Amino acid sequence: MTGSIKGIERFESPGKGRGLRVTKAFKVGELLFSCPAFSHVLSVKERGYYCEFCFTRKEGLAKCGKCKKAFYCNVKCQKADWAMHKLECSAITAFGEKWCPSEMTRLVARILAKTKSQKERCVSEKILLIGEMQSHVEDVDNENREMNEGNIAELHQFYSKHLDFPDHKDLLTLFSQVACNGFTIEDDELSHLGTAVYPDVALINHSCLPSVIVTYKGTSAEIRAVQNMKPGDEVLISYIDLLYPTDDRNNRLRESYYFSCDCQECKTKSKDKKKLKLRKRSDPIEPEVVNNMVRYARKSIREFRACKNIKTPGELLEMCEHSMEEMGSVFDDSNVYMLHMVYQAMGVCLYMEDVEGAIRYGEKILKPYFQLYPPFSLNVSSIYLKMGRLYMVMDRNSVGVGLLKKALAIMEVTHGKDHLYLAELRKEIAQK
């Protein structure tokens, strides 16, 4: 597929394996290429709000007459999606509330269905041919191996009527490939909409100093430059959240993608001091105290993540406040670990519809996010959108419009000036 994309070619990237590079110049905001998903699946939580086939959000979607769970723009979208939806339609009806495959299982089922007709090759070979997606099945830790085994059990339980499965080893490889190469489709505020596989995009290597960014138009992925690029430059995206310091980023890369980054930022760690800023005190803070607090912060983040679906919103907010109080004795308010907990507290307030609380926490994030994230960051535009809309709710329109305009300026680069999100945002601003 990449051979047909003008201005892009595949090559062997030193130390990284396969990759993409540009053969002509691209300016900031320019579209390198767009590609449809090989396979995609809408999150169960978004059913009824988005079309199952094209991911269009609209009022009055038509529901599937049989299962009553899938929704579509019109008959055209419903017919186009039937080859995939039939994998689930009868099972949803038969299992009722017990129908609960993971999103990963649902996506893999669709990939198997798409490759079903090519019986001359095993599934893993076919998937490898589709973009040469990497697999690290031998590197998977016990927790992820158990998750893959659970997903395979779900596949047999919920999809055996419509699918013939390859052997167990091939299925383990396929789940590992999709875990490493799948993409989360998100909306303008970075809310999760679904998951997809884009073989061409999966060829792009990681850097903590990315040259491009991936955004979504419906179920298609669009890759735009966030740096000016000259012929021969490698196309690089970030696989992870870039807010965190070098050690945290590389821990995440090793855990999820089985490699460490050696980009210039990871070599120099030039932004780490700013990201780990300490509170100003009359007496200097001992390095051991700082290291202990970093360990505490990482532990608090893991514990909060583990408790998200167990504790009540009030308990979660209390966890955030307690962590911030502990960390605040050592860390500055702009320290990334403090920001992490502030962001989580804001999210809890949004869930509880506590607008004033969400604004109170959000105000602590705005300036540090702008300073710590790279230019044209979706994390920055999304916080501008969230806060701008919250201010509107509180009738603080001038402040809200100012933040929405800041989001618009970033999104004109990341999404392109003709994206539906921007048309809706311009309308939102004009109405206020």
**Can you give the helix content as a percent range?**
40-55%
- The quaternary structure here is single chain
Describe the sheet with the most strands: 3 strands, antiparallel
Structural class: alpha+beta
Shape by Cα distribution = globular
- Across the major sheet, the strand order is 3-11-10
Question: How many separate helices?
Answer: 16
What is the CA-atom radius of gyration, in angstroms?
23 Å
Describe the secondary-structure layout.
Blueprint: E1 8-13, E2 17-22, E3 31-35, E4 39-42, E5 62-63, E6 71-72, H1 75-95, H2 103-115, H3 123-129, H4 142-159, H5 168-181, E7 182-186, E8 192-197, E9 205-206, E10 212-217, E11 220-225, E12 236-237, H6 246-257, H7 264-268, H8 272-275, H9 287-307, H10 313-327, H11 336-351, H12 355-362, H13 366-372, H14 378-393, H15 397-414, H16 420-431
Parallel strand pairs: 9-12
Antiparallel strand pairs: 1-2, 3-11, 4-8, 5-6, 7-8, 10-11
Helix pairs in contact: 2-4, 4-5, 9-10, 9-11, 10-11, 11-12, 12-14, 14-15, 15-16
Overview of the molecule:
The chain has helices spanning 75-95, 103-115, 123-129, 142-159, 168-181, 246-257, 264-268, 272-275, 287-307, 313-327, 336-351, 355-362, 366-372, 378-393, 397-414, 420-431, and strands at 8-13, 17-22, 31-35, 39-42, 62-63, 71-72, 182-186, 192-197, 205-206, 212-217, 220-225, 236-237. The protein is of the alpha+beta class. The protein has four domains: 1-37 and 198-270, Beta-clip-like, CATH 2.170.270; 61-111 and 119-182, no CATH class; 271-364, Serine Threonine Protein Phosphatase 5, Tetratricopeptide repeat (Alpha Horseshoe), CATH 1.25.40; 373-432, Serine Threonine Protein Phosphatase 5, Tetratricopeptide repeat, CATH 1.25.40. The strands form five sheets. The protein has a three-stranded antiparallel sheet, with no helix packed on it. A three-stranded antiparallel sheet has the order 4-8-7. A hairpin with a 7-residue loop joins β5 (62-63) and β6. The longest helix has 21 residues, at 75-95. The two termini are 45 Å apart. Residues 120-126 and 128-133 have low confidence and may be disordered. It catalyses: L-lysyl(4)-[histone H3] + 3 S-adenosyl-L-methionine = N(6),N(6),N(6)-trimethyl-L-lysyl(4)-[histone H3] + 3 S-adenosyl-L-homocysteine + 3 H(+). Its EC number is 2.1.1.354. It comes from Cynoglossus semilaevis (Tongue sole). Residues 51-89 form the MYND-type domain.
